[in-house]
TrEMBL record:
Gene3D superfamilies: At5g01610-like. SUPFAM superfamilies: At5g01610-like. PANTHER family: DUF538 DOMAIN-CONTAINING PROTEIN, T31J12.3 PROTEIN-RELATED. This is Uncharacterized protein. It comes from Hibiscus sabdariffa (roselle). InterPro entries: At5g01610-like, DUF538. Pfam families: DUF538 (PF04398). It comes from the Eukaryota.
Amino acid sequence: MGIFPKGITDFSIDPETNRFQVNLTQPCNSDSEIQFHYDFNITGILSSRKIANLSGMSQQELFLWFPVITIRVDDPDSGLINFDVGVVDKQFSLSLFETPLDCTAIDPNDSFSNYQEPFKFRSTETVEENKLRAIS
């Protein structure tokens, strides 16, 4: 499965909590039809057909980057994978993730990079308010 990019230098998992950490050589953006950004470190909790509490991964929608919170496969026979980016669930074909993604290293300090920090909700807003704000 190629949810994470090529260039992983280390992977660890706590067998009691299923919390994992993936380390990359440097932050990068995927070179695929779906734009992902990966930080140096990606963490989350593995369970059956789901990665929850994900951090260190963002997905670009139009010109904004949104943090990927959860990745799940609801029905393996459907051939679909869902990415929860907070304001919406994005659904993609599992076939796009058959192999690890190619990834181009980026310098987060480079003003010419197309990566920007992920869009984050203000703590006083509700999800519904954020969905409305994202649509408008």
